[in-house]
Specification:
Distance between the termini: 19 Å
Radius of gyration: 16 Å
Number of strands: 0
Number of helices: 5
Largest sheet: none
Helix content: over 70%
Order of helices and strands: HHHHH
Bound molecules: protoporphyrin IX containing FE
Shape: elongated
Length: about 120
């Protein structure tokens, strides 16, 4: 459960960094490049952590949302690494942001399901 907390916090930090990077310049807010670089390392950590933290567990029923949440962070990561490799940004940045937000939502849903399953199991 602790790992899921860490994963959720990292996803919110990631979202915040992304939103500031995207919308910040229009309101005069520029991210320090060092701080922005953490978006890349956090991206890799988040993708690996999601695969581990959302692995099948005997006491948590396997629901499709758990599998989606487990692997979805790989999609914005792949696109983000594509940007680094020279993929043109433009509208793809919007796709990247939506995939990132979908990853946040699916991890939230999977974490809530796990919490309910574990508390039901502990009341038996
Ligand atoms: C699991 C979630 C995410 C992962 C793994 C991820 C990963 C990455 C990576 C590796 C890059 C390339 C770094 C660079 O261009 O310097 C990137 C760029 C970016 N990301 Fe994310 N990201 C995620 C979520 C988000 C979210 C939720 C947002 C905003 C809502 C966001 C906004 C951006 C923006 C604005 C860029 C810069 C694109 C450009 O070069 O213009 N990211 N992301």
């Amino acid at each position: 459960m602790k790992l899921l907390w860490i994963l959720r916090i990292l996803l919110y930090v990631q979202t915040l960094l992304g939103l500031v990077r995207y919308f910040g310049p229009s309101v005069g807010l520029l991210l320090n490049p060092r701080l922005w670089e953490t978006h890349i390392s956090l991206g890799v950590i988040i993708a690996l952590l999601a695969i581990y933290a959302l692995r099948p567990l005997p006491e948590v029923p396997t629901a499709p949302i758990r599998t989606v949440a487990r692997f979805l962070p790989l999609a914005p990561l792949a696109l983000g690494l594509g940007f680094l490799a020279g993929l043109p940004t433009g509208p793809l940045v919007i796709v990247h942001m939506l995939l990132g937000l979908a990853a946040v939502g699916s991890v939230e849903m999977a974490a809530a399901r796990q919490r309910r399953a574990l508390s039901a199991a502990s009341q038996k």
